[in-house]
Amino acid sequence: MSENTLSKKDFNTLSDELNEALLEAQFDLNRDGKGPLLVIISGNDMAGKAEVIYRFYEWLDNRYLNTRAYHLPEGIDKRMPRMWRYWRTLPSSGEIGFYLGSWYHQPLMDYSRGTLSFAEFEQQMQDILRFEQMLVNEGVVLVKLWLQLSNDNVRLQLSKSEVKKALDSVSMREWGDFSAQDYEKVREASHAMIQLSSSPGAEWQRVPSQDPYYRDIQIGRLILDALRNQPQPAESLPLPRSWIPSNEDLLGQLDYSARLEKDDYKTQLDKYQKQLKSLVTHPDFAKLSLLLVFEGSDAAGKGGAIRRVSQCLDPRQMRVHGTRAPTEEERRQPYLMRFWKRIPAPGKIVIFDRSYYGRVLVERVEGFCTTADWQRAYGEINDFERQLLEADTVIIKFWLAIDQDEQLARFKERDASPLKRYKLTDEDWRNRDKWPAYHDAANDMLSFTNSKLAPWNLIAANDKRHARIQVLKAICEHLRQRLK
Question: Is the pTM of this model over 0.70?
Answer without folding.
Answer: yes
